[in-house]
Every structure is written in C-alpha cells, then in structure tokens.
Amino acid sequence: MQALAFVESGIATALLVLLLVRFLRPYVGEWWAITVGLAYGFGSLAFPFATLFFGHAGSTAALFGSFYLLHRLKLRPGRWTAVAA
Fold this sequence. Notes:
The structure is a single chain. This protein has about 80 residues and is an all-alpha fold. The protein contains five helices and no strands. The chain is about 85% helix and about 0% strand. The protein starts with a helix and ends with a helix. The model has no long low-confidence stretch (mean pLDDT about 85).
C-alpha cells in the first residue's frame, strides 16, 4: 500500500516541485527558485498529502502543469502546447 501511495502521490509532488523551480527560475533566480520549491515540497501541506493515498497531489500537479503549459504558450506559441494543457 505504501508503494502505491508513493507512485500516486509522491511522484506527482516531486514533479510539481521540479516544475515550480523551472517556472520560477527566470523570475527570481536559481537560488530562490530552489528555496521556494523545497519550502513548498517540505514545508507545506503538500508533504503530508504526498505520503498518503489521496488525489490531492495528483490534481495539484495536473493543474499547475496546465498553467505552466499555457504560460509557455504565451511566451513561445506552438499549436500542441494548448492541446496538451
């Protein structure tokens, strides 16, 4: 059961942290982006939900992933980015 919770929630939270760092890097710099990513991953309610078998982590990662793709669409237009979002 723990392995299933890790696959469903833990990996989604880790991907969200990486996507958050990638999104913030051009705006605040490398050090602050990593700090905010780690603070979100370990210092918020994302960490307890990443260790439990809930869908909150997966839905959060999907929503932020869509936001990130739409933000990229604004910067670099491409026809498949909107479809993926």
